[in-house]
Write a structure and sequence with these properties.
The structure is a single chain. The chain is an alpha/beta fold. The chain folds into two domains: 215 residues, Rossmann fold (3-Layer(aba) Sandwich), CATH 3.40.50.720; 84 residues, UDP-galactose 4-epimerase, domain 1, CATH 3.90.25. Helix content is 41%, strand content 16%. It is built from 13 helices and 13 strands. A seven-stranded parallel beta sheet has the order 3-2-1-4-5-6-11, sandwiched between helices. The chain has a two-stranded parallel sheet with strand order 7-10. Strands 8-13 form a two-stranded parallel ribbon. α1 crosses α8 and α7 runs parallel beside α9. The longest helix is centred in the N-terminal third of the chain and has 22 residues. It is globular and about 55 Å long.
């Protein structure tokens, strides 16, 4: 039995592939193009990973690419991450076509291939800029505004409906602020996360456009995120069709920057950069609470085990050792 991962060359998908392989699962890693040196190096030492090429936005292509495998579950992580207003303006049709149409194609592949589980990797963007007096749990009303958030919201509802129509066990999982090894800019992820961009700047000796040190996000180490997603794909049963995965607390920009400065001595920081230089993740809403993962924790006993100090140490160790970054 195999677990299919779409978007397998992206930050989250690649880490999910690695986690599943390390757990002894047979993994079908689906990318829009063949695996490159980055992917091969990142997965070095893993076994039973089968790479296939398919564009999830093309009707029937994914189903055809995986038809030779005995598919148990599909984890759908392929997405166009529209992190800037300009990307949204320039690629509106592509965002909707890939993010929503691709979800339908992945669901169809699960149905045709006889999979028993479908996991959709979603985002807090499906909620939008919601504020609440209570916890940011799965019951928070959704008010997405960006095309990316709207496509995530729509996909969650499509996944839920497909599950009912075809008696398929489904779950959407909103992941918050992943950071760590494996991130890079791609054609589907033009603007990367703040921590990644700050590390690039620090390595090059450039000033870090951090924004206010008091800003905070629920940054979650990617190993914890990937472990949670893998749990949803392999669990015998699921109690719900929507889950949150998050650190559950907030880490300030200042904390992260100080950890970077401890590795790259002498780096300068600009807490008041121009809007164009400030990462959209930091310039966005400052008051939104961290996602509440208590539902997931209660059902699976999961909790984020890697705190920011250890996470950044692991990230920095990988950053210095990873061949494609240092060749």
């Amino acid at each position: 039995m195999a677990i299919v991962v779409t978007g397998a060359h992206g930050f989250v998908g690649l880490n999910v592939v690695k986690t599943l392989a390390e757990q002894g699962q047979t993994v079908v890693a689906v990318g829009r193009s063949a695996a490159d040196e980055w992917v091969s190096s990142f997965l070095a030492g893993t076994s039973d990973v089968h790479h296939v090429v398919a564009d999830v936005s093309r009707p029937g292509e994914l189903a055809g690419a995986i038809k030779g495998f005995d598919v148990e579950a599909i984890i759908h992580a392929a997405v166009v991450t529209a992190t800037t207003l300009q990307v949204e303006k320039d690629d509106a049709a592509r965002i909707i076509h890939v993010n929503t149409g691709g979800t339908i194609e992945a669901l169809e592949a699960a149905r045709i291939g006889g999979a028993s589980r479908f996991v959709y990797v979603s985002s807090p963007s499906a909620i939008g800029d919601a504020s609440t007096d209570g916890d940011m749990d799965e019951s928070v009303p959704k008010h997405p505004e960006s095309l990316y958030g709207i496509s995530k919201d729509a996909s969650e509802e499509i996944v839920r409906r497909y599950g009912k129509l075809h008696d398929l066990s489904v779950a959407s999982v909103r992941i918050s602020q992943p950071y760590g090894p494996g991130e890079r800019a791609t054609s589907s992820r033009i603007r990367t996360s703040p921590i990644y961009e700050w590390l690039l700047d620090a390595q090059a000796g450039r000033t870090l456009p951090s924004g206010p040190f008091s800003r905070a996000r629920d940054w979650t180490f990617i190993d914890d995120t990937a472990r949670g997603i893998a749990e949803l794909a392999t669990a015998d049963t699921l109690q719900y069709d929507l889950y949150h995965l998050s650190l559950g607390g907030q880490i300030t920009v200042g904390e992260v920057v100080e950890l970077i400065k401890s590795e790259f001595s002498g780096v300068d920081v600009n807490q008041e950069p121009s809007p164009d230089d400030l990462n959209p993740n930091i310039s966005g809403p400052s008051g939104r609470k961290p996602l509440d993962s208590s539902r997931f924790a209660s059902e699976f006993g999961w909790s984020p085990s890697i705190r920011i100090e250890e996470g950044m140490r692991r990230y920095l160790d990988w950053w210095k050792a990873f061949p494609p970054l240092n060749s």
